[in-house]
Amino acid sequence: MKMLCLRNVEYEKNGRKILHGVNMTFRDGMSYSILGPNGAGKSTIARILMGELKPTAGGVLLDGRDITGLGVTERARLGISMAWQEPARYEGIRIREYLTLGGKLKAEEDEIREVLELVGLPYELYAGRMIDKTLSGGERKRIELASLLLLKPRYAILDEPDSGLDITAGELIEELLGRFRRAGTTVILITHHDEIAGKTDFAYFVCAGRLVKKGFSREVVEYYRRTCGRCLFVEGSP
Amino acid sequence: MTIKVDRVKEYEALLDIYEREGLDTSLFGDRIAAIIISGDRIIGLNNVPGVEIKGEEIENGVRADVRIADGVELPFPIHLCTGYLKGEGYQRVEFSITVGKNSKVKFTSHCIFPYAKDFTHEAISKITVGENSSVLYDDEHVHGEGVRMISKTEVDVKAGGRYTGKFTLTKHRARELKLEMTAKLAERAVAELTSKVKAVQDDSVEIREVLLLEGTHSRGDLKSTVIAFDNSRVNVVNEAYGLGDYAKGHVECHEVVKGEADVQTVPLLRVKNDKAELTHEASIGRINEAQLVQLMAKGLTEDEAAELIIKGLLGE
Fold this sequence. Notes:
Largest interface: A-B, 27 and 24 residues
Shape of chain B: globular
Number of strands of chain B: 20
Number of domains of chain B: 2
Largest sheet of chain B: 11 strands, mixed
Strand order of the largest sheet of chain B: 1-3-2-6-8-10-12-14-16-18-20
Structural class of chain A: alpha/beta
Helix content of chain B: 10-25%
Distance between the termini of chain A: 16 Å
Radius of gyration of chain B: 20 Å
Order of helices and strands of chain B: EHEEEEEEEEEEEEEEEEEEEHH
Number of helices of chain A: 9
Number of strands of chain A: 12
Number of domains of chain A: 1
Strand content of chain A: 25-35%
CATH superfamily of chain A: P-loop containing nucleotide triphosphate hydrolases
CATH class of chain A: Alpha Beta
CATH topology of chain A: Rossmann fold
Oligomer: heterodimer
Order of helices and strands of chain A: EEEHEEHEEHHHEHEHEHEEH
Number of helices of chain B: 3
Radius of gyration of chain A: 17 Å
CATH architecture of chain A: 3-Layer(aba) Sandwich
């Protein structure tokens, strides 16, 4: 079966263990949340999936192939891409140029318009704007999401896509999930908001670097709410 | 445009270079006020209503006096073209530019030294921006491998005036560059000085930008962006002096380093008026890791990502 997996992943930094034997499976065509409080290790998992961080033990598998040793570009070229929690600023680069990766990604102007407007950025106002300090964090976040919509990767990792956005974030996430599903993209959504996690098909609840619960998102979210996000029970690896 | 008969060939050679480099050849048209210099000779001169350019050939170069009358607003830029089409030698150009009151003009200055192997170019400019006038001075360069360039510009911005100076040397080698720009600002005057330079191999770049915020409510920005590769040496000094009441200045220097380049930046902020306010930001280092990795996560290689980031920084 087509899938992206974490197998017994451990991660240690400065002598402190951040992830403890994490196992996760992301099947093609589904949407997943990784839910947990701040400091749970969610973004570390995202960065390990993307290849920015290498696990100190365990591995990452894509369709059964070990891709642990592959770097960020190689993974992106296998179809794994990510919208970052804190998108960078790019002095002198216009949004249109960023979305098309300086012309490397062929896209029609209509497609650029569509993805920008889908994330709530009117094309006329934004396509020609620079990604510099004149844009807010929320605007840059929307640009990151638009870039993945245009890229149509096989796996889209969305790291805290709702943070820094206004009250329309929930609707936007729902719209994005629908759009990614139609494009055949598997979404892996990192969040600490249970209501956002509830919008995906499945969820993993992570706390203190351990997998606490996995299952249908409504079950996991219900458990998360009942325990107020605390690690009362550590589930065995799937 | 008045072109001296014996200088048509040089004029045409310059036009060819403009075409080759993708520069705007319409700047040679009759509607454009212009002075075209080649070596120590004036090969073209054109005046339009409100603009008077006078040129004088001096030893090893040219002295030019440019006067803009009061209340002039030009639809086209004033073209200052300084060429040197030989491989070796020395050239000195002196510009005195006076813009009257309530005028709005743009200068496009091109320095064209495409065949330079061992050539020294010295440019001394004095610019006066009259009361409530606005001047944009865009300075672009086409250099061969061996240019030693010394450029010194002094700008005096009168009350309510605005001066924007842009210096760009990014597509060709800097080799040896000494760039000095000083802006003195009167009451409510505004100045922005921006320089973008790319240094490669063993290039040596020295940039000094000075902002004298003398007038009440004067405002100024200094911004330098330098990309230093290989064994190049770069030293950027940005100085701002807050002298007038409520004067505001900002100094910004960003230097991206790759290879064995030796780079230093010195911001100097000095306030002699407790109502003045100066700020600065500076960065030196490799290309920002977050920028690189975020582009790589979209499928670019590290080199492709770096190239895109640098193109953006240099405004190419």
